[in-house]
Design a protein that fits this description.
Layout (H helix, E strand, L loop, with lengths): L1 H5 L4 H35 L5 H30 L15 H9 L2 H34 L1 H7 L21 H37 L3 H52 L6 H28 L8 H10 L5 E6 L6 H22 L4 E8 L2 E8 L12 H10 L4 E5 L6 E8 L3
Parallel strand pairs: 1-2
Antiparallel strand pairs: 2-3, 3-5, 4-5
């Protein structure tokens, strides 16, 4: 009972009343502007001449709804401490037509339109709930009003029906004060009910879609797993380079020293045994170095441009390399792009019969694009168990794509698209 009586004195009650009052303005303006813009856009798109203008009105209305939704989320965050995540910008990439289509198909914008429509009656109820605060305050000071204007004082009621009875005595004014206190006690609970309804609307219509939010969580989890796996491989590569390889080199040197001190006439069997052990250590060191380079090529330490240039220099075919990357991708994406380039270059050398290969790498609009083309005989394709199928599986782990263009007689061009960030 104490909480009920003291609700009007709490910071939460005043914040909710301020939220109801402030949010009414964008609710009314948003309803009028968004509905008018969409109505005009729909009307114009029905005519052949005004189709372009109609699309502009539709895109503008959706953008306005998104902006008003962002304002509403900021109000909810600042006054109600209700943090609703931004649904994210529409996936607008490509040309003007693609960006326009993405905005017209933007689910978050259409949910914001639904919020602008549904929010209007809720805003009117919230404004009515705020009026209880004002009416209660006016009635509480009724004795003061009666003292200055005893002939022009009445009981103000927040109900939409009934009159306002006039007061003829001080006792009537004091009774009005009691009624005003009761109204002030009830007012916070009316605004709280309106705020609770609006909170549900904000979370349902202005926040991210549940499926999209789940996809985003899975993408973030996948990115963390990819980065963690890449970091583990880097640590393993460093451990192999600084630990096992160094020890094998020391072992091979020690065996060389032992072999030099042995005499073929005195201990031929022992000398052959040492030579065999030394050759085995050298082979193990070579295999370990190959494995280490497969985990993380040292050439990547200087970036993809240096790594691809080094890869081309080691090729048995002439390779032209073009790199245009304003910013370095994440280490995991760099490793994957280098692996794809190395594999595609190896395939071109082994199977294409080409005389020249061209490697192009460019980044833009959040996408890393790798293209490996040769002037060989063509006929390459993605088959189960083949090398290209393995590359497709590798790039799909980061939502990448691989496309092959290889008609009979050539030329062959393989394009790999990877996100800049895993």
């Amino acid at each position: 009972m104490r909480d009920v009586l003291r609700a009007c004195l709490t910071r939460r009650a005043w914040a909710e009343a301020a939220y109801c009052l402030l949010s009414c303005v964008p609710a009314l303006a948003g309803f009028l502007l968004v509905v008018v813009a969409l109505a005009l856009g729909t009307a114009f798109t029905l005519t052949l001449v005004g189709a372009v203008l109609g699309v502009l009105f539709l895109v503008g209305g959706l953008a306005l709804a998104r902006g008003l939704g962002a304002l509403q989320r900021r109000l909810a965050n600042g006054l109600l401490d209700d943090r609703v995540a931004d649904p994210g910008a529409p996936g607008a990439v490509g040309g003007l037509f693609d960006r326009t289509e993405a905005r017209l198909r933007d689910g978050a914008a259409w949910r914001a339109v639904a919020y602008a429509v549904v929010r209007l009656p809720v805003a009117m109820l919230a404004l009515y709930a705020v009026s209880w605060w004002v009416v209660g305050a006016v009635n509480v000071v009724a004795p003061v009003r009666w003292a200055f204007t005893p002939d022009d004082v009445s009981l103000v009621t927040p109900l939409p029906f009934g009159g306002s009875p006039r007061l003829h005595s001080l006792w009537g004014a004091l009774g009005t004060t009691v009624v005003g206190c009761a109204i002030v006690v009830v007012a916070p609970w009316l605004t709280r009910a309106c705020v609770r309804a609006d909170r549900r609307l904000v979370r349902a219509l202005l926040g991210p879609d549940r499926l999209a939010e789940r996809v985003r969580d899975l993408e973030e989890t996948r990115a963390l797993a990819v980065d963690d796996a890449n970091a583990r491989l880097r640590r393993l590569e460093r451990d192999l380079h600084d630990g096992a390889q160094v020890r094998l080199v020391a072992l091979a040197m020690s065996l060389d020293m032992v072999r030099e001190q042995l005499d073929d006439r005195d201990r031929p069997e022992l000398r052959r045994l040492v030579e065999t052990a030394r050759d085995s250590a050298a082979e193990a060191l070579t295999e370990l170095r190959d494995l280490s380079r497969g985990l993380h090529p040292p050439a990547l330490d200087g970036g993809l441009a240096d790594a691809l240039t080094t890869l081309a220099a080691r090729s048995s075919l002439p390779v032209d390399v073009t790199v245009d990357i304003p910013r370095r991708p994440t280490p995991a994406i760099e490793s994957l792009a280098y692996y794809c380039a190395a594999e595609l270059l190896a395939n071109a050398i082994k199977h294409s019969g080409a005389g020249r290969v061209r490697v192009e790498l460019a980044a833009g609009e959040g996408v890393l694009r790798l293209r490996v083309a040769d002037d060989g005989r063509g006929g390459a394709g993605i088959v189960d168990g083949g090398g290209l199928a393995g590359l497709v599986q590798r790039v799909r782990t980061v939502d990448g794509e691989l496309a092959v263009s290889s008609p009979r007689g050539g030329p062959t061009a393989v394009t790999v698209r990877l996100p800049v960030h895993a």
